[in-house]
Amino acid sequence: MKARRQSKLRPTQVLGELMLTAGVLLLLFAFYESFWTNLESAQLQKEAAEELSDSWGEEDAWVNPRGKVAPELGEAFARLYIPTFGSDYHFAVVEGTKDEHLLVGPGRYVDSQLPGQHGNFAVAGHRVGKGAPFNDLGNLQTCDAIVVETQTEWITYRVLPIGGVAADCLNQEQQAKLGAEYAGVQGLTITHPGDVAVIDPVPGTQVTAQEASEGLITLTTCHPQFSNAERMIVHAMETSVEPKQPGQRPAVLEEK
C-alpha cells in the first residue's frame, strides 16, 4: 500500500493564513477599542461624576475656577455640555491628558488656563472607544454652544467661524478681534499631532495668558477615526458667565 503523499503549503497559502490571522486580530482590537473600553470608561466616568457632585457639596471643595490653583491630577473639577449633541451629553472633566486620565473622560491640558479665565482652557478627549466623548466634534457648526459648569458658574463658549460662516453670536468687539489678534483662531481645523500651538493662550500668537483679552475653550481629538495621524481642533470663545442658582439651569442647555 502506497503512503499518502504529504501536501506542502504553498507560499500563497501561508500568506493567506497570515492575512486572515491579522484580520481577525484587527477585528478583535477594534471590538476592544470601540466596545469594551467604552464600558470601562462609562464606569470610571460615572464614579468621577459622583465624586464631583459630592465635592461640590463639601465646604473644602475646589471652589475657585478663576484662581491660579489647579486641581489634582486625575481629579474631576468641571462638567462639559454640548447642547447640539443632545440633552444627555455631559461629561465630568478631569485634570490631565495622560492615558489614565482620558480613560475617565475629557482631560484638561495642565499648562492651559482654567474655565472662565482669559486665555485658553484646552481639553483633550477620545474620538473612538474609551467613552468617545469627542466622537462628533466634526459636526459642530459656527456659534454652537459649548457649556462648562463649575461649582459656582455656568460658562458659555461659542464655536468660532467654520467654513467662512460669520459668528453673529459674538458681540461687536469680539467680532472685530477675529480680524485682529484672533485672526488665526479658526472654529475647526485639522493639524498634525505636534502642533502644540493650538492650546496656546491665543493660538498663532506669542500672547501670554495675562495679555489675552478673551477666554477660549479648545477641544482636541484624533483624526480621522481609528487613527492618530492627525488632530481635529475646535476653538470657541467665551460669550457669557452666569452664577449658579439652586435648581436652575441656563437656557443655553436647551438649544438644539
TrEMBL record:
<dbReference type="InterPro" id="IPR053465">
    <property type="entry name" value="Sortase_Class_E"/>
</dbReference>
<keyword id="KW-1133">Transmembrane helix</keyword>
<dbReference type="InterPro" id="IPR023365">
    <property type="entry name" value="Sortase_dom-sf"/>
</dbReference>
<dbReference type="InterPro" id="IPR042003">
    <property type="entry name" value="Sortase_E"/>
</dbReference>
<feature type="active site" description="Acyl-thioester intermediate">
    <location>
        <position position="222"/>
    </location>
</feature>
<dbReference type="Pfam" id="PF04203">
    <property type="entry name" value="Sortase"/>
</dbReference>
<dbReference type="GO" id="GO:0016787">
    <property type="term" value="F:hydrolase activity"/>
</dbReference>
<dbReference type="InterPro" id="IPR005754">
    <property type="entry name" value="Sortase"/>
</dbReference>
<keyword id="KW-0378">Hydrolase</keyword>
<keyword id="KW-0472">Membrane</keyword>
<feature type="active site" description="Proton donor/acceptor">
    <location>
        <position position="126"/>
    </location>
</feature>
<feature type="transmembrane region" description="Helical">
    <location>
        <begin position="12"/>
        <end position="32"/>
    </location>
</feature>
<protein>
    <submittedName>
        <fullName>Housekeeping sortase</fullName>
    </submittedName>
</protein>
<keyword id="KW-0812">Transmembrane</keyword>
